[in-house]
Amino acid sequence: MPVRAELLAVGDELLYGDILNGNAAQLGRQLADVGITVTHSGVVGDDIETIAEALRAALARADAVLLTGGLGPTQDDLTREGLARAAGVDLVRDDFLEGQLRRRFHDLRRTVPDMNYRQADLPKGADPLPNERGTAPGIRLELLGGIAYAMPGPPHEMQPMFAASVLPDLLRRAGEPAVVVHRVLHTSGMWESAVAEAMAPEVDRLVAETPAGRDRNPTIAFLASGGQTRVRISARAADRAEAYRLIAPIERFAREALGDGIYGVDDETLEGVVHRMLLERGETVAVAESLTGGLLAGRLSETPGASETFRGGIVAYVPELKDALLGANAVARGAVTAETAERMASGARDRLGATWGLATTGVAGPTESEGQAVGTLYLGLAGPAGTQTRHVQLPGDRPLVRMLSVVQALDLLRRTLAG
Ligand code: ATP
User: Fold this and answer.
1) What is the pTM of this model?
2) With the C-alpha atoms ordered 409, 316, 301, 348, is the resulting torsion angle positive or negative?
3) What SS3 state is found at 402?
4) Residue 308's pLDDT band (cuts 50, 70, 90)
5) Maximum Cα–Cα distance for the chain, whole Å?
């Protein structure tokens, strides 16, 4: 049976705009991943009747409500009271939670402030949800023909509680197997629309094969950020092995459809993959940067152990320095040209003593330069077998153009190393 879920964030600071409702974004994404439909998402202030009223309305529409916030020890933390009022029950002190609270504070060599005992109160009939990262337990309460889960506001406390207690419980209620496995395929050098288009037949197949009234399983999601697109394949199953069996044919399809657009899986990063490829070959890279101003060197030095493959870089922002430090001939021939990128790359390779020289030059904006449009990027790559250049027209404003330029440069090196 599909579960219809609603999200309810509690806290005056969300209403006043002091913080953004990041919890809703995280929960919405993760629920969608496993095929649970979120039909409504709301925010209420720190007021018992407002919380209770929102709960009544939510459970008149949906099967489950996921609340975040308002579980702290202070007087304005009123989610417990709101839940009890909506359910028409009293709050009762839980002996186990009280003991746990005492032990936690004892370990910190403190006595429990009187106010904190509120965190050991539960609406009658509720179950506590363990909190690995903080003092406030979560709450699971059946009420009004549905179920509510209250989790703490801080994302680092909410997230593990959601993963360990709330999601498995929701999936059980939906009659779905409770293990969820994700496989993330990272692409670079492909726009999100191109990735989605290549994957479209598989997405259509999954939609067509889902029986009416069932949640989709497995699911495919496209996540674009940092100039790269990730394809996340998620599957629910009774155990991990079975989940991987569901994922495998989709991953095979993706590898076929996206080809060398895919550079890594799961936790891998683009710079980490470049580092690993260079390491395997016993090779190094040096960079010459203009519009990226050191960002490329920054990325290449992020990976632990980077000194084994990254020799260093030259930021030559003005044409005179491109000539003086890299022999680029930029003053005479123009700074934003394929030839300059090529010479900068060769200059970096020779002068910094690396196997590969990688160079960026272009127009970050906000205005055009040398008659070239904002977003013009020339990359140069010099290696043992000669040099190559790449010309790309990037979208976006100055920060985006610079960030995308770094990704394009790393992508050129990665693809070249991959042959
Ligand atoms: P605590 O025990 O820390 O008080 P709590 O459950 O009472 O936990 P709140 O007091 O409502 O949580 O919020 C604490 C902090 O958690 C907020 O200041 C904010 O940093 C973060 N937070 C709360 N709600 C959200 C939300 N919806 N999205 C993102 N962050 C949130």
Assistant:
1) 0.71
2) positive
3) helix
4) very high
5) 82
